[in-house]
Amino acid sequence: MEAKHITFALLVLVAVAVYVWDRLIDRKARAVRTSWNCIRCGVQLGPMESTEIRVAGGPHMATTARACTRCAKRDARVWWAGLAGIVLAIIATAYLLWSR
Question: What does the domain layout of the chain look like in residue ranges?
Answer without folding.
Answer: 3-98
